[in-house]
Amino acid sequence: MNQALSSLYIGPLEGLAPPRVSATPGTDTLPARELLDPSYLDALLTRFGDQYDQGDRRAVASLWSKWHFSSLAAHGLAANLLLERDLPLGLDALHLEQSPEGQTTGLALRHAGCPLAELDPYPRFATLLDGHLTPLVEALAAASGASTKVFWSNAGNYFEYFAGALADHPMAAPDVSEPARALMESRTLPDGRRNPLYRPVSYVERNDGSPRRVRRLCCIRYLIDELGVCGNCPLACRHRARAIETT
């Protein structure tokens, strides 16, 4: 299956390197479960924050999570939606490749995934949601002081983006994105919990009639002065963002 996994990296995934697959992850990778260690996560965010002059810790953690969740969503959804395989993305199984600054740059997998046991929207993404995102979001919120909603919004942003992008993949079936979209359209999960990935993005019409992609919640990167808001920010401008922050 390694070859099948590698074959995914064409079309909208062309710029990404396939995950490293080996039963014995290299010593240059980080066991993802280390992210749940408060002392390690604190040191990681400090290292990552150096490039932003140790700006607001909440924004630093949010920015780190955006890189991490982007990698997670891209590889996880590609295998899930195109190959119907569940990659070993749980924190106890996954290893990470990192830049010197601590940014997640790639995934190292012990194997190339297993056939999906169920095809309904929630069960097919359970490894990603419950095995990785839920505990990591809680850890990031505790380490930074930012709301868990910020990190879930970041995860949902990339979940929605790659679900849409994969519709243009050469290997995609006509309804390839439907399971991901069905999950995002559900307010609750099967067990009654609030769905943290519910409608993370909306599309509004510009004056010229073209659609503008808008996040449901701000990623708070504007708390770092030199960055301002992102291109998909729901806030009208940086000044409005700061007004909301101080109310």
TrEMBL record:
InterPro entries: Fe_iron_reduct, FhuF_C, IucA/IucC-like_C. Residues 215-235 form the Ferric siderophore reductase C-terminal domain. Residues 62-208 form the Aerobactin siderophore biosynthesis IucA/IucC-like C-terminal domain. GO terms for molecular function: 2 iron, 2 sulfur cluster binding; catalytic activity. This is Ferric iron reductase protein FhuF.
